[in-house]
Amino acid sequence: MNKIRKGDEVIVTTGKDKGRRGTVLQVFADSRVLVEGINIAKKHQKGNPQAGVEGGIVEKAMPVEISNVMVFNPKAKKGDRVGFNVGKDGEKVRVFRSSGEPVDI
To answer: Based on CB atoms within 10 Å of each CB, which residue in 8, 9, 27, 51 is the most buried?
Structure first.
């Protein structure tokens, strides 16, 4: 079970996009995450008229190392570490480390 999942709102802690927030679009197996609007790179794309793809320079979101993002805590209005607690019914629940409140509300 991962501490950061698809759909989580995260805040970047290091790098050129430090302090920016975005939503996780994809979590890769090699401990990287794709965050919406973060780590934008300009890529040269070759056109393909048969597929309707126009050539030129396009902006594309690139993956970020998972250690460089934190889950955003809306109550504290900052990034927070995430841990796990076992509930009364034996189910694992993700919780914020600072307050102990569940992440998935």
So the answer is: 8
